[in-house]
């Protein structure tokens, strides 16, 4: 029973990594909307695994390492592949090199965070987290056809720099809602917009399972926090 309990958060983390892999596959096939939705699901899972580990008292060093590896795939490689296939591929080796900067900067940011995690404050992150940067890059890639190319390139490079910068970003860890709620909310809005346009058949059924489960998880977190505060 103890082994099963400790494995549950890791299963969420591995699922996050798997959806990142599926996103890469969809980008390679030119299906960027599906690739974005799969990254959205990865973000949901990423925001849940740590909280589930704390709820089950199943925190472990293995889980922390898995989380970093999953993040570099789902929020580093997958968004960069979206950007490459949808825009940078037309510039040949130069475009490939530029697109590759995103996971490189993201990996450096994760490594720096891991070695400084004990020293860092709970109130802020140093540099933009790779999850937030990957989510923003995914949104930018979806709408890059509606903006000048140089704007997209500048935004791409800016996100890379912000990840490794020393800028203090509020962590919002003390707020009961799962982290990166703003970006996830934008993604949810986009997904619901797609459904509203009656294009459901084009998208993976994962999204119709993930959204209700995630909303239920948020609701549970709010109720749990309210009960905890009322007992103090």
Summed up:
The mean pLDDT is 79. The relative contact order is 0.13. Helices cover 74% and strands 3% of the residues.
Topology summary:
Elements: H1 2-28, H2 32-55, H3 61-86, H4 92-99, H5 101-116, E1 124-126, H6 130-142, H7 149-164, E2 168-170, H8 181-196, H9 206-230
Antiparallel strand pairs: 1-2
Helix pairs in contact: 1-2, 1-3, 2-3, 2-6, 2-8, 2-9, 3-5, 3-6, 5-7, 6-7
How would you describe this structure to a colleague?
It holds the Pfam family CDP-OH_P_transf. It is found in: Endomembrane system. Keywords: Lipid biosynthesis, Lipid metabolism, Membrane, Phospholipid biosynthesis, Phospholipid metabolism, Transferase, Transmembrane, Transmembrane helix. The chain has a single domain (2-171, 178-230), classed as CDP-alcohol phosphotransferase transmembrane (TM) domain (Four Helix Bundle (Hemerythrin (Met), subunit A)). It is 74% helix and 3% strand. The chain is built from nine helices and two strands, in the order αααααβααβαα. It has helices spanning 2-28, 32-55, 61-86, 92-99, 101-116, 130-142, 149-164, 181-196, 206-230; strands at residues 124-126, 168-170. It has a two-stranded antiparallel ribbon. Helix 3 (61-86) packs antiparallel against helix 5. The chain starts with a helix and ends with a helix.
CATH topology: Four Helix Bundle (Hemerythrin (Met), subunit A)
Order of helices and strands: HHHHHEHHEHH
List the strand order in the largest sheet: 1-2
Structural class: mainly alpha
Largest sheet: 2 strands, antiparallel
């Amino acid at each position: 029973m103890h082994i099963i309990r400790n494995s549950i958060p890791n299963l969420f983390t591995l699922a996050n990594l798997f959806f990142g892999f599926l996103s890469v596959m969809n980008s390679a096939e030119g299906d960027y909307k599906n690739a974005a939705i799969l990254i959205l699901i990865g973000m949901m899972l990423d925001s849940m695994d740590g909280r589930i580990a704390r709820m089950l008292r199943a925190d472990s060093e293995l889980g922390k390492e898995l989380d970093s590896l999953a993040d570099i795939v789902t929020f580093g490689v997958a968004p960069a592949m979206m950007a490459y296939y949808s825009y940078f591929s037309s510039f040949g080796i130069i475009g490939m090199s530029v697109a590759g900067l995103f996971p490189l900067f993201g990996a450096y940011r994760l490594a720096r965070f891991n070695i400084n995690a004990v020293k860092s404050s709970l109130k802020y992150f140093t540099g933009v987290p790779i999850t937030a940067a990957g989510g923003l890059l995914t949104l930018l890639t979806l709408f890059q056809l509606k903006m000048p190319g140089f704007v997209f390139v500048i935004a791409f490079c800016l996100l890379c720099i912000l990840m490794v910068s020393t800028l203090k970003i509020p962590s919002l860890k003390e707020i009961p809602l799962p982290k990166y709620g703003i970006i996830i909310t934008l993604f949810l809005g986009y997904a619901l917009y797609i459904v509203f346009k009656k294009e459901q058949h084009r998208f993976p059924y994962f999204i119709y399972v993930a959204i209700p489960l995630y909303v239920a998880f948020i609701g549970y977190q709010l109720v749990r926090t309210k009960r905890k505060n009322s007992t103090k």
